[in-house]
Recover the amino acids of this structure.
């Protein structure tokens, strides 16, 4: 039975809130929020990804943005019902602004707004051609010499980048660039994706051969085309590579493989980039208005510079270039690092009869895959969630609706449960000498990922090898590399025929330094992290991922990266920002953070 009282109460609040906004009465609007409140806006009000915290933060945002946003029509979303649980009332909402339609999620405490999520769904007059507006495809009637669909696509491939320029150039053709390219295609934004590899999907195919996704299938869908119902829960890397190649073709993306970006320069006067690329041996000059670096949040390898590396007689390489275990059978391997890649590589080496030692330089958070799926993801991304009516889009918005400032408070109880459920597992790891942690505040994997993008392993088997002593453990920092191995700071020597540096990746603005210049990279500053003042995420607090999917301090330069979930979810909002600029829609950006860290 519908709770009509709750439904009516929420709608009454939305009516009153909307009226205050329409009247420009900011004091009345903020009075609808409780003192401890958060408004996370994805583009609709701020033309940014921004979380306003507290009544004063919300009032400041509205003072700057309300007059141009002109919001109207606040209502509970069609077909949705407000619910109440544990003193929290939750409702899906719809609204409009002067230029867009929005969707969101509201949570009330004591009859006032506690958290509010507002997201841009579409720009008025620039909707995606879908549903009743889907393209006809066939051209009925008679017309002499008209081109076929195939001929139109061939003409576009010949012309775009040569006789006419793309509005957006995306550098990087992995999952991020492909997802964004698909969004832009549906919005009618001319875009080219450039990728140095031979084929779409090679960024996955070229990794170590045992690599599989650690995130489950329900978390990993791309925009528009979901994985089929019989797709494996954890897809092997080559299967993902083939999917991305197929997706690139059927979504009609302008994808330039075997293309390397050599330089990029922005002209402030013309508002245009000059980008020199090498396309399969031929130099091409592109002049896009917007430049997106989709080079991967885990794309720029951190290769250490230890004393004596030049003296090593064996094979040494970064984990991103690890070829797999086949060439090392019967040999000794040392893997420096203890995060996801290090564990995967160590396990594959052991399986192929390699004597392998993992060097753990600092503590690592471990969570078992099955437990993470059950406790950490099950409510939103699982077959049970799908069967209960949870869509990917709703799951994304529910996760997005929890402000980063308080997200750890929701995560800590989940990881406390995981620690209890898998107590014997963790006892075995500690007995083996593995240095465990649960994040700076016990909030576990997701917060570590959001804060620093490292420091964890989702266990799919390597941990048991460590417990059993099959993967050997050593601890401490590296002092030097010698011709036949690794010497640690405590004097321990580890003999090695191969050294794998699973030493992580640098900030994405490192790509900006390489392609555009250090001045631009420093102007933009560090990418990723929240400013939580926890290890590898220095303060001050910025409340959103630094520089990701939103305007930066360099005009017309954008960063797009992250896992498959983030590539899917945030590509929507980046694409709408780019489309608005192409169409000349005013985009007054609110609160681009100051640059505090150079990366």
């Amino acid at each position: 039975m519908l709770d009509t009282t709750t439904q009516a109460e929420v709608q009454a609040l939305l009516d009153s809130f909307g009226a205050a906004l329409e009247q420009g009465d900011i004091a009345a609007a903020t009075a609808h929020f409780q003192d401890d409140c958060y408004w996370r806006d994805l583009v609709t009000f701020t033309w940014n990804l921004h979380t306003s915290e507290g009544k004063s933060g919300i009032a400041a945002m509205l003072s700057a943005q309300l007059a141009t946003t002109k919001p109207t029509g606040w209502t509970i979303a069609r077909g949705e019902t407000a619910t109440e649980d544990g003193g929290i009332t939750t409702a899906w909402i719809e609204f409009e602004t002067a230029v867009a339609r929005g969707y969101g999620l509201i949570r009330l405490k004591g009859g006032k707004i506690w958290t509010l999520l507002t997201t841009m769904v579409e720009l008025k007059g620039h909707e995606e051609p879908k549903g009743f507006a889907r393209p006809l495809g066939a051209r009925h009637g008679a017309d002499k010499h008209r081109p076929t669909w195939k001929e139109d696509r061939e003409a576009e491939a010949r012309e775009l980048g040569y006789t006419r320029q793309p509005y957006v150039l995306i550098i990087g053709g992995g999952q991020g660039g492909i997802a964004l390219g698909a969004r832009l295609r549906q919005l009618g934004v001319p875009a080219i994706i450039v990728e140095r590899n031979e084929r779409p999907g090679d960024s996955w195919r070229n990794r170590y051969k045992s690599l599989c996704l650690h995130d489950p299938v329900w978390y990993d869908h791309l925009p528009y085309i979901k994985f089929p119902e019989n797709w494996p829960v954890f897809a092997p890397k080559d299967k993902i590579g083939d999917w991305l190649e197929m997706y690139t073709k059927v979504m009609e993306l302008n994808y330039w493989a075997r293309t390397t970006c050599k330089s990029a320069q922005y002209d402030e006067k013309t508002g245009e980039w000059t980008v020199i690329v090498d396309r399969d041996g031929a130099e091409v000059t592109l002049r896009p208005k917007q430049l997106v670096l989709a080079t991967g949040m885990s794309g720029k390898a951190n290769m250490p510079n230890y004393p004596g590396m030049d003296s090593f007689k064996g094979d040494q390489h970064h984990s991103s270039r690890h070829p797999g275990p086949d060439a090392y059978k019967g040999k000794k391997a040392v893997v420096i690092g203890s995060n996801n890649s290090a564990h995967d590589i160590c396990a594959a080496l052991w399986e192929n009869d390699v004597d392998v030692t993992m060097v753990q330089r600092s503590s690592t958070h471990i969570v078992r895959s099955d437990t993470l799926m059950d406790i950490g993801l099950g409510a939103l991304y699982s077959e049970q969630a799908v069967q209960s009516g949870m869509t990917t889009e709703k799951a994304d918005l529910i996760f997005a609706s929890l402000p980063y400032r308080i997200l750890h408070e929701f995560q800590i109880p989940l990881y406390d449960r995981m620690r209890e459920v898998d107590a014997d597992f963790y006892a075995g790891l500690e007995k083996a000498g593995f240095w465990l942690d649960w994040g700076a505040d016990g909030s576990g994997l997701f917060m570590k990922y959001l804060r620093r993008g490292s420091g964890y392993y989702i266990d799919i088997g390597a941990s048991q090898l460590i417990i059993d002593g099959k993967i050997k453990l050593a601890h401490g920092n590296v002092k030097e590399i010698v011709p036949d191995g690794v010497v640690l700071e405590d004097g321990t020597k580890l003999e090695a025929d191969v050294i794998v540096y699973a030493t992580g990746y640098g900030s994405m603005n490192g790509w900006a330094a390489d392609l555009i210049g250090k001045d631009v990279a420093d102007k933009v500053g560090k990418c990723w992290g929240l400013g939580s003042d926890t290890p590898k995420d220095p303060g001050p607090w910025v409340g959103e991922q630094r520089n990701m999917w939103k305007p930066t301090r360099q005009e017309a330069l954008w960063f797009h990266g992250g896992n498959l979930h983030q590539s899917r979810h945030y590509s929507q909002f980046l694409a709408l920002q780019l489309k608005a600029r192409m169409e000349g829609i005013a985009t007054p950006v609110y609160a681009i953070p100051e640059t505090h860290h150079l990366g």
In short: The domain at 309-501 is CATH 3.50.50.60 (FAD/NAD(P)-binding domain).
